[in-house]
Amino acid sequence: MKDKVLTGDMGFAVGWALLGLYWMVGAFDYPLWSGFAPDSGFLPLVYGTLLFLLSAAVALSLVFGEAEPEEREPLTKSLLVLGALVVVVASLGFIGFLLPVFGLMMFIYLYVERLPLLRSAVVAGLVTASLALIFVHWLSIPLPLVTWDF
Amino acid sequence: MEALMDLGGGFSTALTPNNLMMCFIGVFLGQLVGVLPGIGPSAAIALLLPLTFGSDPTASLIMFAGIYYGAQYGGTITSVLISVPGESSTVMTSIDGYQMAIKGRAGAALGIAAIGSFIAGTISTLGLTLLAPPLAQAALAFGPPEYFALVVLGLVALAAVSGRSVLKGVAAGVAGLLLATIGIDPQSGVSRFDFGMIWLLDGIEFIVLTVALFGVGEVLASCTTASARPVAEVKNVLPTREDWRRSRMPILRGSFVGFLVGVLPGTGATIASFIAYIMEKKLSRHPEEFGKGAIEGVAGPESSNNAAAAGALVPMLALGVPGSGTTAIILGALIMFGLRPGPELFTQNSDLVWAVIASMYIGNLLLLIMNLPLAGFFAKLLKVPYKWLYPPILAICLVGVFSQANSLEDCWLVVGFGAIGWAMKRFDWPAAPMVLGLVLGPMFESSLRQSLTMSHGTALIFIDRPIAAALMLAAVLFIAIPVIAGMLTSRPRPASAGESP
Prior knowledge:
- The structure holds 2 protein chains of 2 kinds.
- Chain A has helices at residues 2-27, 42-64, 76-95, 98-112, 117-138; strands at 33-34, 37-38.
- Chain A folds into 2 domains: 2-64; 76-149, no CATH class.
- Chain A is mostly helical.
- In chain A, strands 1-2 form a two-stranded antiparallel ribbon.
- Chain B has one domain.
- Chain B is 73% helix and 1% strand.
- The longest helix of chain B is centred in the first third of the chain and has 34 residues, at 106-139.
- Chain B has helices at 2-14, 17-35, 41-52, 57-82, 91-102, 106-139, 144-162, 166-180, 206-222, 241-263, 268-283, 296-311, 313-318, 325-336, 345-348, 350-381, 386-405, 408-426, 432-454, 461-464, 466-490, and strands spanning 183-184, 191-192.
- Chain B is globular and about 65 Å long.
- Chains A and B meet through helix 1, strand 2, helix 2, helix 3 and helix 4 of A and helix 8, helix 9, helix 17, helix 18 and helix 19 of B.
- Chain A: This is Tripartite tricarboxylate transporter TctB family protein.
């Protein structure tokens, strides 16, 4: 378990460090200094360097520090929900908001949480209808509800 | 005297039917999110931001402030009834509050918490009324170097106390600043880090990041623990004469300590409640009762966290430096409404500021009225399982973010940053400094450029000017003190005489 925690924590810190490195390198595409003041590339260079150093320090502290073995929650449910969100956003551009949002809630209620069908359908239906009512009718936001709204 | 006259004007704005209703909605929602698991005031304000886009800023900010201090009341209910603090600031309340609930005195614990919160909230709002205007007046003399130092202090203070690791907090703040460089540089007109995508020219919107980190990220982190818990029964919320005798001094002490701690940037309600609890235990004639259901252990921390919530608005309104994660989001909302946070807020938008302050007196009264008779009703909400709540939260996140710019790309960003927010929560990286970094990034960059232009390129300007130097020193102390304290506590203690080696 401890190894798993360290791997995830470490990977996350390394990810930030890599982002910092990307910003450091990318900053040189822009002028760094103009007259007396910093130009467009200066602060991205500073931020990138700082993020790289700080994240690397976090990663090093995980390697050399005395990490407390911590129990983490299982990933499966969160990954299922995240996957469902990706599918929903991917479909929004084609079929509008109504079906994907209703489908997202039904998927989570029925498949992820194993809740009863009728109650799930009622809650998902009511929430979807309320969102359409609030955003489209009350706030007059051009929310594409279905395919032909695009 | 002038402050009291301004406050009178604030009351006349806050008492209009629309603002009064927004105040009620705010405190009710705050109470609700404090009670409901997996959603805090930061997430609630983030979710409501898209709904308030384009609406009256005064009414919206009255509602956000209501959510902020209302959540302190709501968090108490979960702490007392199921020993699960709804907010980090109510952790200390759960120690003695839950013990009182086990002994059948949940009602008394909730009652004294509500009364203490009302008194503390009112005293603290009075402190805000009297302290914020002179502070803002003094800060009107601020130039770019002072603003730069102020932004540094705000970022560092929040980063240093947001999580368990100062390093992770500061890194998260820097990550926010880094994200703020995406898009067109307003000074030179150069497009930076847009990856060739036109929709990134405007940069990453504050709403998108906030909803992603505090909405989607929070849901992804909490959905695995979506289970119901047994809830204690609530009876007789009015405290007895003896309860009141034991609680009145802890309430007063908690109010003053909470306000003072809340005013310090970055400290907030959680630290205030810890200090109040420790102080009450030290001052008590029966310290052995603490941890076993001492009512002072509820009255002190509860008063303190509510006082700190109002205290944290002093630096936010007067200086533009948020005192907590939630006030960082409110600060972002101010910018979203086209207002400039900082000392000028009191001169250029005084109607708005005084209406928000006046609404806090009204909101505290509404919360007291709601909490005494309705404690049982809110307790029943604890029985709603989180698994029914989080799918609609996700739906609101998606629809809300799309609606603020009609952009599907923003929906992708919400999912991406939501996943990052989940990982941040999982690996204990605080999210609030990241949001603050994104919000304050443009001000940080422009004030740095202006300061260095003024000084002909020398950074000594931040040390030569006394206010800027003092703010910079405070920022250094915020970083140095936790690091030194950590080093001292981790150093092995020498074995004392008589102890075996």
